[in-house]
Amino acid sequence: MSLNEILGILRRRWYFMVPITLLSLLAGGYLYETIPVSYQSQSSIALLDSTAVARLAPTFGNPISNAGGSLIVTADVLIRALVSNEAAQDLQSRGVTDRYTAGFANDSSSPLLALSVTGTDRAKVHRETNTLTAFAGEQLKALQAASKVPSTYFVQTAQVVLPQTPVSQSKSRYQDIAAVLISGMVGAFMLSILAEGVNVVRRRSRALRTGEPLPLPAPLETGGFLRRRVDATSILTVYLALAFFIPSNLALPALGGVGTPANVFALLGLLWYLATWLGGRIRPAPGTRLPRVAMCLLATAVLLSYIADATRMSSHEEVLGADRGLIGLVVWVSLVVLTSAAIQERSRLDVLMRRVIVMGTIVAAIGYYDFFFATNIADSIHIPGLQTSVAQVTAMDRGSFTRPRSTTAQPLEFGGMLAILVPFAIQQALDPVRRHLRVHRRWGPVVIMAGALPLTVSRTSVIGILIIALIMVPRWKPQRRWTAIGLMVTAVGGFKVIIPGLIGTITTLFATFLSNSDSSTQARTVKYSEIIPYLSEHPLFGQGFGTFTPDLYFFTDNQYMLTLAEMGVLGLIALLTLYVTGIHTGGAIRRLARTDSDRELGQAFFASSLVALVISATFDALSFPMFAGMFFLTLGAGGSYLGFVRRDSQETAAAATTVAVPVRRVAEPQPVES
Predict the structure, then answer these.
(1) Is residue 190 part of a domain?
(2) Is the same domain home to 260 and 131?
(3) Can you give the three-state secondary structure of 206-257, one letter per residue?
(4) What is the pLDDT of residues 649-671, one digit of tens each?
(5) Which residue of 320, 461, 610, 620 has the fewest C-beta atoms within 10 A of its own C-beta?
(6) What is the C-alpha R_g of the chain?
(7) Are residues 433 and 572 in the same domain?
(8) Is the same domain home to 158 and 256?
(9) Could you give the CA distance from residue 606 to residue 410 in angstroms, rounded to a whole number?
(10) pLDDT-above-90 percentage for the chain
């Protein structure tokens, strides 16, 4: 369906668009006049160790201060005490009735606490901030007195930033207004398209009853931008360009991490599909239901966790996180639906996958620049209206090497995203259809993307490339297999010569991991036991998808642990179902394939999904928009390819049966009409 056709539908259904749009505008104006402006005041306090710490601590010590340490543990204990229900009741009795927060100050590695109060009365907010700041010092003294610590060993608080003059916070106000306007216009749009779809169904039913020819869609128009028919491959190409070339940490301020331009465009793509489908212009491709069924299970788990979050005493930040989680879910559904149901021709799906590899190769090449020049090129990209959604995005080092992240938010996302795309680069390089191309055009993406994985100096990337080799190489013929093994050994030697110390650093990473002497590994494994209390409180549905954020709790560095905390056991089952669906899709394509090219394609989907399954245990994979987007896009593409391969197999079997029947029944040769 072209944009001109969509505009024509909206014009014909003006009786939906005009009244609902006007009501939305009136509701937005009413909210603008009635919602009061909120104000926020902030203050900061630092923890200072006692004067007696310089001397040898007595045997009783101070269990809270951890004398001689950095006092980070002390600050964490104080923050938890300030946000407890008992502290909230005590503050309410002192007049602090507005919403307040307490946490570590941003971009600070020292025990520096940031306190804030948000309310609608400017003078009252300032008084409450003073009260909260004084209460923090009293609470710290009370904690130490309860442990019977002598006053000479008390940790003290010092005000670094005095309570500031409250400033207006209009963001939430405009968010509510924008939500009403967007909901109204989208509702009017969907009602108009639905009415058009009902009309199309009635015309077809009437034509079937009267024997008239069925109404067909208008022929393809090429004159002008608005008249040009849009398909799913074109929409997904724009999504890929936005996802790959706009840093994934840049997002719309109102939506947080899920508000990347690529995700917003994916939502528009879903509206296009619904308009085209309800308007009778397109039908879901047959045999592609499996990925969408898996997404239904995930959506059920997310919605149940959202209800679980609504039934408990969650903070304002957790409510916003749950709302962002719903938006992220709709984005993922959009990608799966567009790739599995909306692409009607295999040639267009092949074009999409080639574009994925080309753009992924460019992102990998940017990673080389970051590695060799010790910088982050994404830091120099600033787009008006977007702001970073990831705190402390700077160049990360490991050993003597700078870990590249290209346009992703983190080196782990960079390595994970390339790891799930490398199998498709290999498949396209081996495709007989592309054999006429020069060697550098076929194998260049494989070399660039696979070569960028060790540069991240992470176990995740190395595990990904090892899984790809173990899955794909043994399936090849002996000549190709030994050639690949020789090239991989040569590549390792080349890295040792070109980048001295890189292979040794990676080897040390795995050696310390196996001996459990790596601080990074220890920090992650310690957190596994910390998840258990949250899981025991909400074992089945979790505490809410998108609510277990690092600024409120801690980094999990494990997608499965994060899923257990946010969506419970049901969410973990849904997540594993997604990965198993991708693996099953790849295996089914390989079993049904009648050509070597399709067998390699099925093996690529199998390897990519298995990589995603394994490396999700090494970082919170779906929290990163670029990795999540590529995973769900390939998941839907696998379902679409399976539908094409299955239909080809059925047609071939039917043709063979048709030819075989006359041969058995006819005794003498008969002329066969071609």
Answers:
(1) no
(2) no
(3) HHHHHCCCCCCCCCCCCCCCCCCECCHHHHHHHHHHHHHHCCCCEECCCCHH
(4) 887 777 777 655 554 544 455 55
(5) 320
(6) 29
(7) yes
(8) no
(9) 26
(10) 27
Q: Mean pLDDT over all residues of the chain?
A: 82
At residue 271, what is the residue type? L
- Res 551: pLDDT: 73
Separation between Cα atoms, residue 27 and residue 6, nearest integer Å: 26
Q: 0.85 cut: is pTM over it?
A: no
- The number of folded domains in the chain is 2
Residues 254 and 157 in one domain: no
Q: Identify the domain boundary among 103, 132, 165.
A: 165
* Within-domain flag for 554: yes
Q: Is the pLDDT of residue 577 over 90?
A: yes
Q: 265 φ, ψ to 5°?
A: -70, -35
List the domain range (segments joined by +) for residue 139: 38-165
> What does the pLDDT read at residue 414?
92
Which of 146, 165, 184 represents a domain boundary (last residue)? Answer: 165
User: What is the CATH number for 118?
Assistant: 3.30.70.1130
The per-residue pLDDT for range 288-327, each reduced to its tens digit, is: 899 999 999 999 999 999 998 888 777 777 888 888 889 8
Tokens of 459: 């176990």
CB 71 within 8 A of CB 142: no
pLDDT over threshold 90, residue 337: yes
Show the tokens assigned to 318. Answer: 């957790």
Residue 212 lies in a domain: no
- Say if 15 falls within a structural domain: no
More confident residue, 188 or 305: 305
> Per the structure block, which two tokens stand in for 167?
């400033």
Task: Report the distance separating Cα 324 and Cα 623, nearest Å.
Answer: 11
Give the three-state DSSP class for 589. Answer: helix
